[in-house]
Please model this.
Amino acid sequence: MKKGFTLLFVLFFCFRLTVLGIHPGTIHLAVHPDTPATKNQPDSAKAQASLQRHDQINFLATANQPVRLITDLLITDKTILPLPEVITENLKQITSGIQLDSLKASLSEAINQREGLKKQIKLNEQAKIEHLLKSNDPDSLKMELKHAANDTLKALLYTRLASLYSGYDTISGKKKQLTYQNEDINYTILAIQQYAAYNDSTALRRSFDNLAKVYYAQKKYSQAKWFILQSNTLSRAKNDIPNIISSLITLSLIKREIKDYQLAMDDLSEALQLSIKNHSTRAELEVLKNYALLYHKLNNYPKEAAVLKKRDSLLESLRKNEEAKLAAQNSLRKKKLDSLQNKKKVYSSNMRKLYKNNSSGKIVSL
Model:
């Protein structure tokens, strides 16, 4: 009886508080589990009363917060508004796709930036090399050699230095001239070592030609002959007819100096055949000039005169052909100019007629 009365009292008290607008959560309840009224109750009864009071307090505390109650239910109750698994999987795929596209775009942008940087570096290096190869200061080129990073640049610098010293024939004083020749040889050999490393046959041939020229000037004919033979071999391997002819002419000069006249004549004969076969008139003129020098060396003046006469005739024929080509070019240019002027005249005439017709039409309309 006492238990029921106590419970009813608590319920009535809480109800009155609610009616009066007093939030139950802001006050402390007077009823305590250990009050004298409940102290002598069994433990099971105490637990039951405590549970009932807890439920009542929770209900009263949330009675004035319907929005919060609904929100709590939505959060705590997992059965409300479940997200389908298909939608979840699609969202994952879309998210991963967006991330993948973003990564691809970032990677593509990074690659483009890297390629652009490589191109810019290459352009800068080319501009630097072009500037260096125009330099006429041996000291600056030698300084640059100390910082050259690759064999190609070193070879180009060596070649440029050699070319600066190749003007030895313009230097007065035999001692200084010899110094220039030796520097030319030294840097050309250094360049050959670099060119040989990556098999640049054209640069090698030019270097061999230069060494043959310097050694010929120093009257070191054995060395000159050896290097021009290397040049000739490279030219034959590439079927480079103009340079085959040029190397044969140089060989004939060297053999003439060492009094090997018959072999010199054989070289000139082969060079003449190649020049005629390939319709190289200028090469043929050079061969005929060296034929005349060889006959003069042999004191065979009639043959020398005959060769020079043939050379002069060929030179005159070449001059006439060049004049005819020039005249044809001028004629073609004149025809184009006349055609353009005629078109301008026709255009001007048509414009005048059109203007006249338009003016007549306006007068008639008036």
Remarks:
- The chain has a mean pLDDT of 77.
- The chain has four domains: 2-76, 85-134, 136-302, 303-366.
